[in-house]
Amino acid sequence: MAKLDGLVQDAMGQTGLPGMAVAVVYQDEVVYAKGFGVREVGKPERIGPDTVFKLASVSKPLASTVVAGVVGRQLIKWTDPVIESDKGFALKDDYVTRSATFADLMSHQSGLRTASGDLLEDLGFDRSYILSHINQEPLDTFRSSYNYSNFGYTAGGEAAAKAMKMSWEDLADQILFRPLGMSASSYRNSDYEKASDRAAIHVPLGNKQWAAKYHRDADSEAPAGGASSSVRDLAQWLRLQLGNGSFGGKPVIDPTALQTTHVPHAVSGPASSPAARSRFYGLGWNVSYDDQARVQLGHSGAFNLGTATAVAMLPGEQLAIVALTNGRPQGIPEAITAGFLDAAQHGAPTVDWLAFTAGIFKQLDDSEKPKVDYSKLPSNPAPARPNNAYTGTYANSYYGPLVVLDQDGKLALKMGPAGNPTTFPLAHFDADTFSFESMGENGNGLAGALFAGSGGGTAPSVTLDFYDKTGLGTFTRIS
């Protein structure tokens, strides 16, 4: 405990992170709950234990707790096909649609690829639209592949809510937040926005400088990433986790249903050598084992637009920690939770955890860079055709229509929900290829708009490489 302040202050000093809050639970007591830094850069308000943060994917273990509550009411089983509760559920393969269970979806074994549906969310489509269109996404092997999928997870949460005949947001309130007195917690973005004590989200500018540039509404993937809470509230939830479903001496969540979330369901990281240990995923929890064979449970949350969170538990020691930050993922909360548990077990951290976790996140960032660098123009680009060769309306069953416009002599494309489309200015790159700035949580710089055809006439189609990661990014001209 005495080392924790220093771990946090050192991490913030090295990175310039605007703010963080941390809580520790030990033997059913909240033994530490503290805020550091400011809610928003340039403003004086300080972070405290009651400051509300966006949780990103720490929403997942919260959600599996909620679904465990539904399982405990015997309305569903973890092994029930979700289509029995949600008749509209559908994936690309009929067998998978009929067979995929709550456990399959919440352990990321449905076959949906990582990020399936995420680009629809970035464009502003709602949960109903996205879940009704993920049946176009190609599938990996059912139950023998692991692909981290926000919308597969969301589909599981939605089906549990339908089994209870209520919305997901109301279900979480009824089963978890109200019984534990978690009054600062919600799966509604509007509640986060209304909170008077909330942490803004920040992105790094370099040289330890940060800016609150973006807003992030994750309502469409609420069970997977849309929760907000404070460390004081989350400490109560950790008491419930360590208490095997009981809180304050009273049963809240069925212990068998809750324990099912804590055991391995999928191999998320196969051992890389004979002496290495594999990593596993439970239901909303990463599951691993330490050098003493003790189970360790944890999860990270990450919004590239400005949130990073982490939770970790050693259930056998009745010890848990949660760290919430208001900055883009750089491995900071993971360094705090890992450093603390390391110190608890060994007397002091045995690894420079911030350097270690920062290196992992940098590798992730590097892996997500575009394959083509559209910022580097060809030395002698071929000319484009006249603008009217490209303008028009193009259809796509997944993303909906795309309109290419001529705006004062410059091309732009417009796509997204009919009531709130996004317009992307196009810049010529080479011949029939143009570039545009990708946007949203998954935006990674300039992307390409590749128009088909050449010479005279109009382009019959256009492929947007940023939106074509699973082969769904070609739009066909209809006018």
Rg, nearest Å: 23 Å
Helix content: 25-40%
Strand content: 15-25%
Total beta strands: 23
Residue-averaged pLDDT? 97
Which regions have little confidence, pLDDT < 50, spanning 5+ residues?
Answer: none
Q: What shape does the CA trace take?
A: globular
Provide a brief overview of the structure.
This protein has 14 helices and 23 strands.
Commentary on this structure:
This protein is an alpha+beta fold and 479 residues long. Helix content is 27%, strand content 23%. It has 14 helices and 23 strands. The chain has helices at 4-15, 59-72, 94-99, 102-106, 118-123, 127-131, 150-163, 168-177, 189-194, 222-225, 231-242, 255-261, 332-346, 353-367, and strands at 19-26, 29-37, 53-54, 203-206, 209-211, 228-229, 246-247, 250-251, 266-269, 279-281, 286-289, 295-303, 307-314, 319-325, 392-395, 402-407, 410-415, 422-425, 427-430, 433-437, 446-451, 461-464, 474-477. It has a 9-stranded antiparallel β-sheet with strand order 18-17-16-15-23-22-21-20-19, with no helix packed on it. β4 (203-206) and β5 form a beta hairpin. The longest helix has 15 residues, at 332-346. It is globular and about 75 Å long.
Task: Please render the helix and strand layout as text.
Elements: H1 4-15, E1 19-26, E2 29-37, E3 53-54, H2 59-72, H3 94-99, H4 102-106, H5 118-123, H6 127-131, H7 150-163, H8 168-177, H9 189-194, E4 203-206, E5 209-211, H10 222-225, E6 228-229, H11 231-242, E7 246-247, E8 250-251, H12 255-261, E9 266-269, E10 279-281, E11 286-289, E12 295-303, E13 307-314, E14 319-325, H13 332-346, H14 353-367, E15 392-395, E16 402-407, E17 410-415, E18 422-425, E19 427-430, E20 433-437, E21 446-451, E22 461-464, E23 474-477
Antiparallel strand pairs: 1-2, 1-14, 3-6, 4-5, 7-8, 9-10, 10-11, 11-12, 12-13, 13-14, 15-16, 15-23, 16-17, 17-18, 19-20, 20-21, 21-22, 22-23
Helix pairs in contact: 1-13, 2-7, 2-8, 2-12, 13-14
